[in-house]
Write a structure and sequence with these properties.
2 strands, DNA-3-methyladenine glycosylase I, globular, mainly alpha, two-stranded antiparallel sheet, 9 helices, Endonuclease III, domain 1, about 190 residues
Length: about 190
């Protein structure tokens, strides 16, 4: 399936065809570059929490995630201890999954360690594809790539968790490492 025409007369990727939070995310954020360590850590964390769930669920809980993970400040989250994990396990406004919460803390610590090298942002951008995909329809869209597999392995070696190849592909789409929009979508080719 190619781009779909919304009731507003605009062509979009099929998952964003109707009004609501998903379309708003598609039109204003998805595939646009993110800047800064906190922005990258937020998207990496949210993609990990999304694993096995709908993205809509995560978007509806996003403000709560931002609050409980203190704006995704790596230094603050890296200092979370078992008491903080227990506190977050009782927080009904977020996804309460112990392994994912512990991964968020581990990933904040790994992010701090990356500061001694190139930093999280430059590290992720180092895995951008030389030839970005340009799918014309959903049958041509991938869920992994050689680059997302390599990024996953490299992050795991650096102590990151919940960073599988599919999750890293979704991260790269979300933060504009490459343009994920279908050819013909009004957002395709727009930075």
């Amino acid at each position: 399936m190619g781009p779909v025409l919304g009731e507003d007369g605009v062509l979009r990727c099929p998952w964003a065809g109707g009004p609501g939070v998903m379309r708003d995310y598609h039109d204003t954020e998805w595939g646009r570059r993110v800047d800064g360590e906190a922005g990258y850590l937020e998207r990496l964390t949210l993609e990990a929490f999304q694993s096995g769930l709908s993205w809509s669920t995560i978007l509806h809980k996003r403000e709560a995630f931002r609050e409980v993970f203190v704006g995704f400040d790596a230094e603050t989250v890296a200092d979370f201890d078992e008491g903080d994990v227990e506190r977050l396990m009782t927080e009904v406004r977020i996804v309460r999954n112990r392994r994912k919460i512990e991964a968020a803390v581990a990933n904040a610590r790994a992010t701090l360690a990356l500061r001694d090298d190139v930093g999280l942002e430059a590290f992720v951008l180092g895995f951008a594809p030389e030839v970005p995909p340009a799918p014309e329809d959903t049958d041509q869209q991938a869920t992994t790539s050689a680059e997302s597999v390599a990024l996953s392995k490299a992050l795991k070696k650096r102590g990151f968790a919940f960073v599988g190849p599919t999750t890293m592909y979704a991260l790269c789409e979300a933060i504009g490492v490459f343009d994920p929009h279908l050819v013909g979508c009004h957002r395709q080719g727009v930075a």
